[in-house]
Write a structure and sequence with these properties.
- Residues 66-182 form the Thioredoxin domain.
- GO terms for molecular function: protein-disulfide reductase activity.
- It holds the Pfam family Thioredoxin.
- The chain has 182 residues and is α/β, with parallel strands linked by helices.
- The chain has a domain at 72-181: Glutaredoxin, CATH 3.40.30.
- The protein has 6 helices and 5 strands, in the order ααβαβαβαββα.
- The chain has helices at residues 6-17, 43-50, 83-92, 107-123, 138-143, 170-181; strands at 78-80, 97-102, 128-133, 151-156, 159-165.
- β2 (97-102), α4 (107-123) and β3 (128-133) form a beta-alpha-beta unit.
- α4 packs across α6.
Length: 182
């Protein structure tokens, strides 16, 4: 298993210092929380909730998710990257970064994907937008303290300056990026 660079470890240490009370959250079922300790949250229960299924049985819809895009690896301004690529980008990129930690099965992640793409299309000259699949990059998600999905990390000069959890609309993402970076 490849070792993470000191810069990535430094980001992880910086995240420890951030208080959970400062985390930007929306109410309701706006975030999937499968990565919390088992005592706090059942992984299967969260997975069922995020897929829009009944948490007790895993069957039957509990909400109408409407017209949800199912593909999260969209071609466009948001780049899907793995842990190794992320490590290189963190070390070399001069633009601020918006990093979306997501999972294919996460309903709120599916809602955020087209919203993030919309913002990325308009801001790609000033900010680099990345997506990291937490199921394929579990170690990095743990290292970056991603405990809910989707989680956006806003990184400038190698440091996390803001984090946001839960579903957001394009205007909310745009405002978050502008207040964090400009």
């Amino acid at each position: 298993e490849a070792k993470m660079s000191m810069r990535v470890w430094g980001l992880a240490v910086a995240l420890v210092a951030m208080q959970l009370a400062e985390a930007f959250q929306l109410t309701g079922y706006s975030a999937c929380r499968p990565l919390l300790p088992a005592a706090s949250c059942s992984f299967l229960r969260s997975r069922a909730l995020c897929a829009g299924l009944s948490p007790s049985t895993g069957r039957g819809r509990i909400q109408n998710q409407g017209n949800v895009r199912t593909t999260l690896r969209m071609a466009g301004a948001v780049e899907a990257v793995d842990a190794e690529t992320f490590e290189v980008i963190i070390q070399e990129e001069t633009k601020p970064l918006v990093v979306d930690f997501y999972a294919e099965w996460c309903g709120p992640c599916r809602l955020v994907a087209p919203q993030l793409e919309e913002v990325a299309q308009t801001m790609k000259d000033q900010v680099r937008f990345l997506k990291i699949n937490t199921d394929e990059n579990e170690r990095l998600a743990t290292l970056m303290q991603v405990y809910a999905l989707p989680t956006l990390l806003l990184i400038k000069d190698g440091a996390v300056v803001q984090r946001a959890e839960g579903a957001m609309m394009a205007n909310q993402i745009r405002d978050l990026v502008k207040t964090s970076f400009f």
